[in-house]
Amino acid sequence: MIPFGNLKKHYSLIKSNIDKAISDVLQGGWFILGETLKSFEKEFAEYCGKKYGVGVGNGTDALLLALKAYGIKQGDEVISVPNTAIPTISAIVSSGAKPVFVDVGEDYLIDVNKIEAAITEKTKAIMPVHLYGQVCDMEPILKIAEKYNLHVIEDCAQSHGAEYKEKKSPIGETGCFSFYPSKNLGAFGDAGMIVTDNEDLAKKLRMLRDYGKSERNSAKLHGYNSRLDDIQAAILSVKLKYLDMWNNERRKIAFIYDILLKNNFKIPIENKNNKHVYHLYVIKTDKRDELQNFLKNKGIGSVIHYPIPIHLQPAYEYLGYKEGDFPKAEQYASEILSLPIFPELENEEIQEVVKVIKEFFEN
After folding, report:
1. % of residues, the chain, pLDDT over 90
2. Which of 197, 232, 227, 215 lies closest to 55, judged by CA?
3. CA 358 to mean position of chain CA atoms
4. Backbone phi, then psi, for 361, in 5-degree steps?
5. pLDDT score recorded for residue 336
6. CB-CB contact of 181 with 163 (8 Å)
7. Dihedral of the CA atoms 94, 37, 8, 60 (nearest 10)?
8. What pLDDT, on the 0 to 100 scale, is given for residue 265?
């Protein structure tokens, strides 16, 4: 059996450090908005090349609170993509804004050449999604945003440590991260963070995450309850020290897959100027469903990210999109399959995955 991921094994390799970090917080007796959180916020912001970090309850809240902090409200429009996880769009809708989609390119990322056509007088922000571990082409996105006076809020939920022109994500002013357990940097529960260079935004975010309070009993804003707790911050602080090493292991695994599988189907594209961190290793084949069943019968895990584009989800029918509006996103939804990839995946396991895939295509 080769699982899609192995969080149990992941923990076992750093167990002593994790257990000590948790114990230190428990013995300290301060679990919410304590010094452990402040320390991790600083560490992670610096890792990303940003001045400020604001820990929140999860990645969806990170996106929502960033939208709120930038003043996005009812009637506004936010440009994003239809081939993303539901939380990206859930955050936009929860802010009161309307998501407006543009199609994607061969790399699964937003097609920058289609953004301007989607901009209206109601457009207030662009939310590029750094999908599968690779950063969008941010230089033209930031230029478009400047031209039309739009905010850019980067969805970095799958791009911890990914680089664009030798700069870690986020590339613009503000990015939002999820630390869901399966991420390249994952907590042992829900957790998220916004990193930014904007001091005023960071101050506002700290109020928004804690009921809008500027001090203990004074609420300046209508806020939320979304705080990254100190136990999760302690765990993440330990794991952050290993992140670059783990990302390099993912890249090595992806390279092996590339070499051994390039003749069977379309392998992931790593764009020029990018350092892909392979949160997911996603292949494309018109025999996707048959291949997935074959892998399952051979004891190999795989997952589809994502089988139904957002514009075709029942919850978002009211947006008025229809099948055929975003042909690339729709095509990919029927062809993509994510293969096992995690830092602890052993060479023998990689070879077995490849062997089974080749067996499928030879039949």
Report:
1. 97
2. 227
3. 30
4. -75, -20
5. 97
6. no
7. 10
8. 82
**Whether pTM exceeds 0.70:** yes
d(CA 272, CA 269): 9
Q: Residue 120 is encoded by which pair of tokens? A: 């209206």
User: Which value, in Å, is the radius of gyration of the alpha carbons in the chain?
Assistant: 20
Using DSSP bridges, classify how beta strands 123-126 and 151-155 pair: parallel, antiparallel or unpaired. Answer: parallel
Dig out the tokens for 14 from the structure.
């750093």
Backbone angles phi, psi at 169, to 5 degrees: -70, 145
Residue 67 near residue 97, CB atoms below 8 Å: yes
Compute CA distances 335 → 42, 283, 324, 331, 341, whole Å. 40, 8, 16, 7, 18
Phi, psi of 322 (to 5 degrees): -140, 165
SS3 per residue for the chain: CECCCCHHHHHHCCHHHHHHHHHHHHHHCCCCCCHHHHHHHHHHHHHCCCCEEEEECCHHHHHHHHHHHCCCCCCCEEEECCCCCHHHHHHHHHCCCEEEECCECCCCCECHHHHHHHCCCCEEEECCECHHHCCCCHHHHHHHHHHHCCEEEEECCCCCCCEECCEECCCCCEEEEECCCCCCCCCCCCCEEEEECCHHHHHHHHHHCECCEEECCEECCCCCECCCCHHHHHHHHHHHCCHHHHHHHHHHHHHHHHHHHCCCCECCCCCCCEECCCCCEEEECCCHHHHHHHHHHCCECCECCCCCCHHHCHHHHHHCCCCCCCHHHHHHHCCEEEECCCCCCCHHHHHHHHHHHHHHHHC
- Cα 305 to Cα 223: distance, rounded to the nearest angstrom: 32
CA angle, corner 139, sides to 136 and 143, nearest 5?
120
For residue range 249-260, list pLDDT tens digits in order: 999 999 999 999
Residue with tokens 């999908």: 131
Q: Are 312 and 330 in contact (CB under 8 A)?
A: yes
- Average of per-residue pLDDT across 265-285: 95
Kindly list the distances between the CA atom of residue 140 and the CA atoms of 100, 108, 340, in Å, as whole numbers in the listed order. 19, 17, 33
